[in-house]
Design goal:
Number of strands: 15
Shape: elongated
Strand content: 15-25%
CATH topology of the largest domain: Rossmann fold
Number of helices: 16
Distance between the termini: 5 Å
Strand order of the largest sheet: 3-4-2-1-5-6
CATH architecture of the largest domain: 3-Layer(aba) Sandwich
CATH class of the largest domain: Alpha Beta
CATH superfamily of the largest domain: Phosphoglycerate kinase, N-terminal domain
């Protein structure tokens, strides 16, 4: 996988470059972007190409197609606060081609939401070819979508000279390091659906000195151990003895539960009642984890400890504070994890590498490659 900065700047001047970014940003009810983390992480590649004098066509998806085909216009507006960019409400039609034909060196435009055309998700090469016709070079900087086989991820590289963006390069480098961590190492994995996480958990148990399972995955651990789980979310499959009896495996020793009247309190797992829903870990678990975090030379973290969308972020914040104090090399990812950290006020510069990927990060950790990376190779 070659990175775009391996090409001399003089050779990029005047070139039409289709830049696939991962700035699929959340848009609130008023039509405004509510989080710019991925946008800011994408800026180095955008600014590099503009500085080289390239004519940059920025492309990204927005929303969760096919059920919604929202416009990417609010994201283009957010981008304008950082760089000079014009929004073109078209994809591969006459309007887009006409604007591209009049672009000057160093100028940038942003085309409409890629997923407005169903061929993007379908991975249709006809759509990939139409998009490729806008440019002379393709740059993929969209790590959050790198595990997808969409038209831009795996199709466009068939029709244009293709390179990784600066962020894509950094993501691959840092997550590669997380696949071979320095010892002692410590991994934190949250989320849900144990059946999809089991292969990764088993791999992490081989590579890391300790692996702490949290979030809804911890509910599955309690259920498998015969402990009560009340109204908590439980996966279709549960962890087996090979995981539960592994000496490297860690699970919460206390939990925060919410009753149906929305009152919350901390309990031991065995004290969970029928009306309780497990919503987070507790302070004893944070205290248990503290020495593992303090002594680690490498920390991997994906997934908050609690139900972030319902406001249970206190103990995720506590973990972030401990991680910030650690001198370990750190790789942290997952949208809710990053959002909770941002709310915590913890200095992000002390948290190591913050990945823009959630599912893409987990899949890369497991497989060591992704479809979009294979396409660039």
């Amino acid at each position: 996988m070659k990175c775009i900065d391996e090409i001399p700047a003089a050779e990029l001047k005047g070139k039409r470059i289709l830049l696939r970014t991962g700035i699929d940003l959340p848009i609130d009810d008023k039509g405004n972007v509510s989080d710019v983390f991925r946008l800011e992480r994408s800026l180095p590649t955008i600014q590099f190409l503009s500085k080289c004098g390239a004519r940059v066509i920025i492309a990204s998806k927005a929303g969760h197609a096919p059920k919604e085909k929202i416009s990417i216009a609010p994201i283009a507006e957010a981008l304008k606060k950082y760089i000079s960019v014009s929004f073109v409400p078209d994809l591969t039609g006459t309007a887009a081609h006409d604007v591209v034909a009049t672009m000057k060196d160093g100028e940038m435009i942003m085309i409409e939401n890629l997923q407005r055309d169903p061929r993007e998700i379908a991975g249709d090469d006809s759509y990939a070819k139409e998009l490729a016709s806008l440019a002379e070079i393709y740059v993929n900087d969209a790590f959050p979508s790198a595990h997808r086989k969409s038209a831009t991820m795996t199709g466009v590289p068939k029709f244009l000279p293709s390179y990784a963006g600066l962020l894509m390069r950094d993501e691959v480098r840092e997550i590669n390091a997380a696949r071979s961590p320095s010892s002692p190492s410590f991994a934190i994995l949250g989320g849900a659906k144990f059946e999809t996480k089991a292969p990764l958990i088993k791999l992490l148990l081989e590579k890391y000195n300790h692996v702490f399972i949290t979030g809804a995955l911890a509910n599955d651990v309690f259920k498998a151990r015969g402990l009560p789980t009340g109204r908590s979310l439980i996966s279709k499959e549960l962890p087996g003895a090979d995981i539960l009896s592994n000496p490297r495996f860690l699970a919460p020793i206390d939990v925060t539960v919410e009753r149906s009247d929305k009152q919350a309190r901390v309990k031991k797992p065995e004290e969970v009642e029928t009306d309780d829903k497990i919503v987070d870990i507790g302070p004893d678990t944070v205290a248990m984890l503290a020495p593992h975090i303090a002594s680690a030379k490498f920390i991997l973290w994906n997934g908050p400890t609690g139900i972030f969308e319902e406001g249970y972020i206190r103990y995720t914040q506590n973990i972030a504070e401990l991680v910030a104090k650690s001198e370990a090399k750190k790789v942290i990812g997952g949208g809710d994890t990053i959002a909770a950290i941002e709310q915590s006020g913890v200095d992000q510069s002390k948290l190591g590498f913050l990945s823009t990927g959630g599912g893409a990060m987990l899949e890369y950790l497991l497989k060591g490659t992704l479809p979009a990376i294979e396409a660039l190779n």
